[in-house]
Amino acid sequence: MTNFHSDALVFFGATGDLAYKKIFPALQAMVKRGHLNIPVVGVAKAGWNLDQLRARAKDSLEKYGGVDAAAFEKLCTLLRYVDGDYENPATFEGLRKELRDARYPAHYLAIPPVLFETVVEQLAKSNCARGARVIVEKPFGHELVSAQGLNKVLLGVFNEADIFRIDHYLGKRPVNNMLAFRFANAFVEAFWNRTYIKSVQITMAEDFGVQGRGGFYDQTGTIRDVVQNHLFQVLSNLTMEPPARLDSESVRDEKVKVLKAISPIEEKNLVRGQFLGYRDEPGVAKDSKTETFAALKLEINSWRWKGVPFYIRAGKYLPVTCTEIVGKFRKPPTLVPESALTENHLRLRISPEVTIAMGMMVLAPGEGMASQTVEMVASRSPRAADMDAYERVLGAAMEGDASLFAREDYVEEAWRIVDPVLKTGTPIYQYQPNTWGPREVERVTPMGGWSNPASHEESVAASGAAA
Questions:
Q1: Is 456 designated active site?
Q2: Of 202, 205, 451, 229, nearest in space to 312 by CA
Q3: d(Cα 59, Cα 19) in Å, to the nearest integer?
Q4: How confident is the model over 399-438, as pLDDT tens digits?
Q5: Catalytic hit among 5, 142, 168, 230
Q6: How far is Cα of residue 373 from the mean position of the Cα atoms in its chain?
Q7: Phi, psi dihedral angles at 308 (to 5 degrees)
Q8: Greatest Cα pair distance in the chain
């Protein structure tokens, strides 16, 4: 792994939507924390100048997070701008001039993947790639073949150690908190395996639709948008073995082993849904077969997890916005009738708040031996005023820390798992907004049913009553 800090940040797509919503707020936050003091060069084809880019940055910050006067003033002194077509060598000659004495730039490709090859080739021809890192925005490929093609393009110019494939979900601290929970607590290892765990559910629910991104979403769908990247990363953190060391390659080795142990998803283990009204969204085909909901079942054929089913579902226009994991325990060999028992569970909520809770059986109030299920909440905290995911991943990339990024083999293994079933064109089932997907999801449902996340308020009230 190359061990240096980047001395310039170049971001292609400086006038785009991602820059407006995420990158400018992240850059100001980095300046405010004292983490950014290098030239920041925006590149785009918009007919703009530097003053217009600064105005765009200010407008972005006013809408997404607020302007910090001192930090914004400092950011403006760091900003530079190159306007031009990505296919024109003159654009990259201009970039070379703006980089000046920078020897180790980081090039962030916040642009559509179809432009990656053009930009990477021009970086190489203009000598802007020498000593550089490249940061690549998702989606990384549309299927296995295109992901392999993009890897080939990138590896033709950059070393793997200098390629940072962003999955901003790994920049979320609660996602990585799962590793601390598992490996920093001795008691967890005793039960977190096939001997005690009966099944695991991962739910990523959103109570809104495509929010004006119909054109993008209709070419992507839920599986490509969040399952094969975000939720597979959650799955890997949940199920990986302890790494031999804490360096990024050792951690990423263990994550790849998880995916290698998963067979491609079978048609019978996938249900795709589409909320009613989706086809009326701007940019969406009137006969669209793109899913806005997916539920699937898979198994990890490893020593720790063989025989334990993992259920993953994600979707838009569901009843709540929440990402949550529930591990159901096997029932004990007790004298209490099994029909009277509810499985113990471990519940890890990633968002909107962070919760670790254990579900267990206790005696119900009153006389007799009747029992009830309660939750013991080990930890609950609101979403911390912590680094935004983009701030964290951009900072890590410029430091050369690859822990929060997907490696080439990981990306290709993730596509291998979902590729065959995506190509078969499985049916799309309609569902009403504000429901938990189509009724056909019963085909991919854990024994005992899905554990539907409650809203934050309901969750707090329930645990308060149990306590």
A1: no
A2: 202
A3: 11
A4: 999 999 999 999 999 999 999 999 998 999 999 999 999 9
A5: 230
A6: 32
A7: -95, 120
A8: 84
Cβ atoms of residues 16 and 108 within 8 Å: no
Average pLDDT for residues 249-258, to the nearest whole number?
A: 96
pTM > 0.85: yes
Using CA atoms, how far apart are residues 234 and 258, in angstroms rounded to an integer? Answer: 11
Radius of gyration of the chain (CA): 24
Q: What is residue 300's DSSP assignment? A: B
SS3 44: strand
Angstrom distance (rounded) from CA 461 to CA 465: 6
Q: Average pLDDT for residues 158-182, to the nearest whole number?
A: 90
Beta strand spans in 330-381 (E): 345-351, 354-363, 371-381
User: pLDDT, tens digit, for every residue of 391-403?
Assistant: 999 999 999 999 9
Decide if 82 contacts 41 (C-beta within 8 A). Answer: yes
φ and ψ at 44, to 5 degrees?
-165, 165
What is the rounded CA–CA span in Å between residue 10 and residue 42? Answer: 6
Dihedral sign of CA atoms 193, 194, 196, 200 in order: positive
Give the DSSP letter of residue 228. I
Tokens for 22, please give them. 């995420």
Which residue in this structure is represented by tokens 């559509």? 112
Helix (H) or strand (E) holding 98: helix 89-99
Burial class (CB in 10 A: 0-12, 13-18, 19+), 62: exposed
Q: Which tokens in the block code for residue 42? A: 């925006």
Q: Which residues, in sequence order, are CB contacts of 335 under 8 Å at separation 6+?
A: none
Distant-in-sequence, close-in-space partners of 187: CB < 8 Å, separation ≥ 6: none
Looking only at the bridges linking them, the beta strands covering 270-275 and 293-299 are: antiparallel
Residue 176 C-alpha from the chain's centroid: 11
How many angstroms separate the CA atoms of 76 and 63, rounded?
17
Residue appearing with tokens 């950059």: 158
Using CA atoms, how far residue 85 sits from 81, 102, 118, 122, in Å, is: 13, 23, 10, 11
What distance in Å separates the CA atoms of residue 120 and residue 140, rounded to the nearest whole number? Answer: 15
Q: Which of 159, 182, 306 is nearest to 237 (CA)?
A: 182
Distance CA(170)–CA(230), nearest Å, equals: 8
Residue 238 contacts residue 325 (beta carbons within 8 Å): yes
Structure-block tokens of residue 176:
């990585």
CB hemisphere CA count around 211 (13 angstroms):
5
